[in-house]
């Protein structure tokens, strides 16, 4: 390795043989893929430079042997690793079970607290999936690791591989106090003298950094709909929380902090507001909430036609109390639970309803977590463009 190794962030990939560690590195560094990559039996590495907010960050990405018999070799080279990426194959349960060995191996041998990431590779083979996204996320949660799904094979998903490495390096730097100060955090501000909303761009990674004579507010996104349509579950999924717990009806209006990462590397601080189905009977609460919301997600259960029809009442209330431009989304939830043929709402019906109300229709499933993040990002981008 070169003399300036101390300036590099050392990243190491571990996991069972044939999960695709070498393929991920090849896609990231060379933008290439081969179905006939031999098993790694020595430790290899590549040097790479990631540009984050116009700053060149040097990294060294190390590839390790997946067979346990090379444990002593791996042990020799994991020293000083700052980021550890655990890789499993979504079509191979054995590789997922093997994570326990690799986690304990790193925990025992590394002797420090590296930044951890868990990657489910080969999402181009979803038809052969043996480990669900939910299982992967739960495993990552227990490990305290950043979770991501990708495909080293699919050239069209090269951006996902690049985004993954950029994201974990950013998060590692921020966690360790590195001032990636060109990264902009967009904070919605409310001038004390009037109700008009603007945006402020902060050069601090921490929310609320810097001096300002303005009161800071996050951008509010509110979820509305009848009882049991899945508002809370959608929010929990977006936040990466456990959605397998027993359902409990939301009793109060709750704000959940969320950061939306935009394509231009800016971050927007958001409140995801959860509501119960009875809030429409509380005129005072509605008036106050709608006054400060610009993006509305109206949720219905596609297996319960009446929950779509009841959105009319919500939209009337929104338009009554919202004075400025707003963005209305109609979300047809539970598309993977189609069990009510006579009560089922089709895509065409959902689109027609949204079009009549001046909104956009999307059918969703909590199994497609990335699509939920993208839905929020698209709304935030449209909102910021409208300012």
Detailed description of the structure:
This protein has helices at residues 21-30, 71-77, 93-97, 99-110, 133-143, 158-175, 231-239, 283-291, 305-309, 311-321, 347-356, 369-386; strands at 9-14, 44-52, 55-63, 83-89, 115-121, 146-149, 185-190, 197-202, 215-216, 219-224, 254-261, 267-274, 295-301, 327-333, 360-363. It is elongated. The N and C termini lie far apart (50 Å). Strand 14 (327-333), helix 11 and strand 15 (360-363) form a beta-alpha-beta unit. The chain is an alpha/beta fold and 387 residues long. It has two domains: 5-175, Rossmann fold (3-Layer(aba) Sandwich); 185-386, 3-Layer(aba) Sandwich (Rossmann fold), CATH 3.40.50. The chain has twelve helices and 15 strands. The strands form two sheets. Strands 7, 8, 9, 10, 11, 12, 13, 14 and 15 form a nine-stranded mixed beta sheet that branches. A six-stranded mixed beta sheet has the order 2-3-1-4-5-6, sandwiched between helices.
Give a nutshell description of this structure.
This protein is an alpha/beta fold and 387 residues long. The chain contains 12 helices and 15 strands. Helices cover 32% and strands 25% of the residues.
Secondary-structure blueprint of this entry?
Layout: E1 9-14, H1 21-30, E2 44-52, E3 55-63, H2 71-77, E4 83-89, H3 93-97, H4 99-110, E5 115-121, H5 133-143, E6 146-149, H6 158-175, E7 185-190, E8 197-202, E9 215-216, E10 219-224, H7 231-239, E11 254-261, E12 267-274, H8 283-291, E13 295-301, H9 305-309, H10 311-321, E14 327-333, H11 347-356, E15 360-363, H12 369-386
Parallel strand pairs: 1-3, 1-4, 4-5, 5-6, 7-12, 10-12, 10-13, 13-14, 14-15
Antiparallel strand pairs: 2-3, 7-8, 7-9, 11-12
């Amino acid at each position: 390795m070169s003399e300036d190794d101390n300036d590099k962030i050392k990243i190491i990939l571990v996991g069972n043989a044939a999960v695709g560690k070498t393929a991920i590195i090849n896609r990231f560094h060379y933008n290439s893929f081969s179905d006939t990559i031999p098993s790694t039996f020595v430790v290899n590495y590549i040097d790479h430079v990631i540009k984050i907010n116009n700053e060149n960050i040097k990294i060294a990405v190390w590839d390790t042997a997946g067979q346990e018999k090379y444990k002593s070799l791996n042990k020799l080279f994991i020293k000083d690793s700052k980021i550890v990426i655990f890789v499993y194959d979504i079509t191979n349960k054995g590789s997922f079970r093997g994570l326990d060995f690799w986690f304990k191996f790193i925990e025992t041998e590394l002797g420090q607290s590296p930044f951890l990431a868990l990657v489910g590779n080969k999402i181009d083979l979803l038809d052969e999936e043996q480990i669900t996204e939910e299982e992967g996320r739960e495993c990552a949660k227990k490990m305290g690791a950043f979770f991501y799904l990708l495909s080293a094979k699919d050239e069209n998903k090269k951006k996902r591989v690049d985004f993954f490495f950029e994201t974990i390096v950013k998060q590692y730097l921020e966690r360790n106090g590195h001032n990636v100060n060109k990264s902009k955090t967009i904070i919605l501000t409310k001038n004390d003298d009037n109700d008009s909303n603007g945006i402020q761009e902060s050069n601090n990674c921490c929310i609320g950094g810097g001096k300002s004579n303005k009161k800071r507010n996050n951008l509010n996104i509110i979820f509305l709909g009848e009882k049991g349509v899945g508002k809370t579950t959608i929010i929990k999924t977006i936040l990466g929380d456990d959605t397998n717990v027993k359902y409990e009806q939301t009793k109060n209006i709750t704000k959940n902090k969320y950061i939306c990462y935009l394509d231009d590397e800016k971050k927007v601080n958001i409140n995801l507001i959860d509501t119960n189905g009875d809030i429409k009977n509380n005129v005072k609460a509605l008036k106050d909430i709608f006054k400060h919301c610009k993006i509305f997600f109206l949720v219905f259960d596609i297996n319960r036609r009446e929950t779509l029809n009841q959105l009319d009442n919500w939209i009337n209330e929104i338009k009554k109390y919202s004075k400025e431009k707003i963005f209305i989304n109609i979300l047809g939830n539970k598309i993977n639970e189609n069990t009510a043929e006579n009560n089922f709402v089709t895509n065409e019906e959902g689109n027609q309803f949204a079009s009549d109300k001046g909104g956009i229709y999307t059918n969703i499933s909590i199994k497609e977590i990335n699509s939920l993040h993208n839905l929020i990002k698209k709304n935030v981008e449209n909102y910021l463009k409208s300012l």
